[in-house]
Structure formats: structure tokens, C-alpha cells
Give the backbone structure.
Amino acid sequence: MQIDILTLFPQMFQSPFSVGIFKRAIDHKLVGVNIHNIRDYTHDKHHTVDDYPYGGGAGMVLKPEPIFEAVESIKSDISLKQGVDVLPIILLTPQGRPFSQQIALELSKYDHLILICGRYEGVDERVREYLVTDEISIGDYVLGGGELAAMVVIEAVVRLLPGFLGSEASPLDDSHATGLLEYPQYTRPPVYRRWSVPEVLLSGNHAQIAKWRRQQAVLRTLERRPELLGKANLSLEERQLVDRLKQVV
Ligand code: JD8
């Protein structure tokens, strides 16, 4: 997968891509990341990227020209064997569709993504209307720009790429893929400050362990995120457990 990022702050992307999962994915050539400074696509002496909002109001708005030209330049660099509709051009914005594991999975199917990170008060509406194909928000809180949101989206997508995870882990086991929160995890020592690891985990009985973990995941989801249980794939037995517990509370 190739990912192109448009930003006014390319430096923000340096460290995330030089450690951990990003670095691994890039080193293994599962993903190529190109970071473009929107300012490089200006033509005036002062490299102007923003301007006052028509109609007045606080702050500045990103001008359309450098953003259109950056995307067009990226598009012409891709040998477009494919149609235009298979190249998502994603704007990170508080007005976008709420990001989710489902959207990460959807985006992981593409060969190429273009992510546009705004700043200031946002981008000229014509960018949304005539350039962007998708708008995503990572949540209902206020960020200063789209960069951190883009990194969240990229991390969630890249770890779904085939061949990315080691053989141990499966993205299908992830909390938000099963629809349940994760069960409690323990490691050595078996007793720490007199707090002991649940007996069943030391038993070596794998069937019992699997059953306990599944039950813990269901209970934890019921306690913390009951709205997730509606969509989760529960067995009849698990549904009955949930129903019984709901009556107790
Ligand atoms: C892009 C500018 C800041 C947005 C005034 C100052 C995403 N979940 C999210 N929260 N915030 C963003 C986000 C915020 C952004 C930009 C994304 C570009 N800002 C502006 C409008 C109101 N503030 C986001 N994805």
C-alpha cells in the first residue's frame, strides 16, 4: 500500500514512522509513505497557504490551490491503471464519519490512500466538494489539525495489511474485531505483593482458560461498554449469562 500525506507540518510524521510498527511495515515494504509539504505547492514569493475567511470571522482558512495541485501531482505520479474511484482522497476533519475498526478494514483494501491534514480553521470548502472523496473524524474532541488523526488512521490500517502481524497475533482476535473488550492479562511473577494471578491461568487446562477468558471479556464488556454487546457474536449460553447479570443489576 502507498500512503501519501499532505500536511503543513511534515516534521510531525518523522518519529512515528521511524519506530515500532510503522518502521517494521516500511522496512518490510508492506507500505510506502510519502509526506508532502503543502507549502511546496505554492507559487508566490511568500509561499502562502492560508487566507482570511470570506464573510469574516476568526482565524485563517487553507487556500484551495496548493491542495488541489499537490493531489494532482501525486495522482500523475501514480501510473493510474485503475479508475479514479479506487483512489480514496481522505480529509481528516471533525465533520467526517466517525473512524472505526470497520472503516480501517475498508481502507486496508486499497492500494493507495491520500490523506489531507488541515490546520487553522480548516480548508476551503471547494476542497471537500471537488477533490475529497471521504471525510473522517477520529472522535468527538478538538485537535489543532489533522496530523495526529492521520497517524491514528494509518496505524489502524497498516496493522491490518496482510503479512504485517507476526504469526502469533491475528487481527480477527482484536478487541474491536470480536466486538468484545479484552480479557485481563497476567505475566510473571505468579504472586506480586500478595496479589496473585487467577488460579485457572496457572492450571495448564487450555479449555478452562479459554472459557474463563471469554467469560471475562463478556463481563468486562457488559460493565464498561454494554452498547457493544448488541453487535457482539455471543453464544446462546453467553447471551443467557448477560441477560441474567443484567437482571441482577
Ligand atoms: C483537522 C483544523 C482545528 C477544526 C476549529 C481549531 C479529526 N477528531 C478530530 N478532532 N479535531 C480534528 C481536526 C481538527 C482540525 C483539523 C482535524 C484542521 N482543525 C479546527 C474546526 C474548528 N479548530 C479531528 N480528524
